[in-house]
From TrEMBL:
It comes from Sanghuangporus baumii (Phellinus baumii). Keywords: ATP-binding, Nucleotide-binding. This is Chromatin associated protein KTI12. Belongs to the KTI12 family. The keyword ATP-binding applies. One of its GO terms (molecular function) is ATP binding. The keyword Nucleotide-binding applies. InterPro entries: KTI12/PSTK, P-loop_NTPase.
């Protein structure tokens, strides 16, 4: 049994990738040289469940729609089945997604523009640092073909997954496929997952909040001129990270959104354990360094 989750912004080409992957896997298993088990490949999506895009306009309708998708996945999972979940999960840049959504035409089952923006803002990007988001295979949208062999190896091969942190002592834009096979990971059977220190979550939240406050203060001091350039954030006597701002004023809501996304992504790695071997550094310096990189990569132009 294997569960493949295709994660991405709405209207970013996830369904195309899901169909490509289904065809590839079926052709591979029908190849005369293949002598493994014949597995059924099934796609679970809003389309297969006849869920309209309009349900995402209203939270009261969205909740049961997501529940229906989850229930369908649970029913489809079996030891003789490969389940591909084409769900509402990050892939291409938002602007391209908006263009693709428009090309569907007003008469089609397309997203309301406001709903599309809302879904993009709410998306939580998968992280390869999290063992349950791994292996994480990234597919550039410009690639016509899938990295089929890599996906095949992730689905059909692997080793037994060790206990998680809760039962053991002791990471153009692109398409992202999370391949989560039962009892599989990249670790040997006897490998222990590095566990974050008990104060890691507090450090993550505290440093991100302090950096957002420092950026806001810096902009206020410059009277919102938005000239861009590199600034120093004096968080403490010894911690003074540098960040390069875009040539515009950054709103508080945008800063808070980026902070929220950053914390959510790394919170998984803290609570579930990291896929990285060795010690993972959750010191204030490293958290600040990671947040600087995240901000600079996600500023809107």
């Amino acid at each position: 049994m294997a569960l493949i989750t295709i994660s991405g912004y709405p209207a970013s080409g996830k369904t195309r990738r899901a169909n490509q992957l289904k065809t590839f896997l079926e052709n591979r298993m029908n190849d005369p040289s293949y002598d493994g088990p014949k597995l059924k490949v099934t796609i679970i999506s809003d389309d297969t469940l006849n869920i309209k895009r309009s349900v995402y306009d209203d939270g009261r309708q969205e909740k049961p729609a997501r529940a229906a998708l989850f229930t369908a996945v649970q029913r489809a999972i079996g030891k003789d089945t490969i389940v591909i979940v084409d769900g509402m999960n990050y892939i291409k840049g938002p602007e391209q997604c908006r263009e693709w959504s428009k090309t569907r035409g007003e008469g089609s089952d397309s997203y309301n523009p406001a709903t599309l923006d809302n879904l993009i803002t709410r998306f939580e990007e998968p992280s390869s640092m999290v063992r349950w988001d791994s292996p994480l295979i990234t597919i550039p949208w410009t690639d016509e073909q899938l990295p089929g062999e890599d996906i095949w190896k992730a689905v059909m091969e692997g080793v037994v997954k060790p206990p998680n942190a809760g039962t053991s002592a002791v990471r153009l834009t692109s398409h992202r496929c999370i391949l989560n096979k039962s009892d599989q990971t990249r670790f040997p059977r006897d490998t222990q997952i590095p566990v974050a220190p008990s104060d890691a979550l507090h450090t993550l939240e505290q440093i991100a909040t302090a950096m957002i406050s420092a950026i806001t203060s810096e902009q206020a001091a410059s009277q919102g001129l938005g000239t861009g350039g590199e600034i120093i954030l004096p968080l403490s006597a010894t911690l003074k990270p540098k960040v390069r701002l875009p040539a515009r004023n950054i709103t508080l809501s945008e800063l808070q959104r980026l902070k929220r996304q950053f914390v959510t992504i790394h919170k998984k790695a803290i609570t579930l354990g990291s896929t990285e071997k060795g010690t993972v550094d959750w010191s204030e310096e490293k958290v600040a360094e990671k947040f600087v990189v995240y901000l600079e990569e996600n500023w809107k132009p």
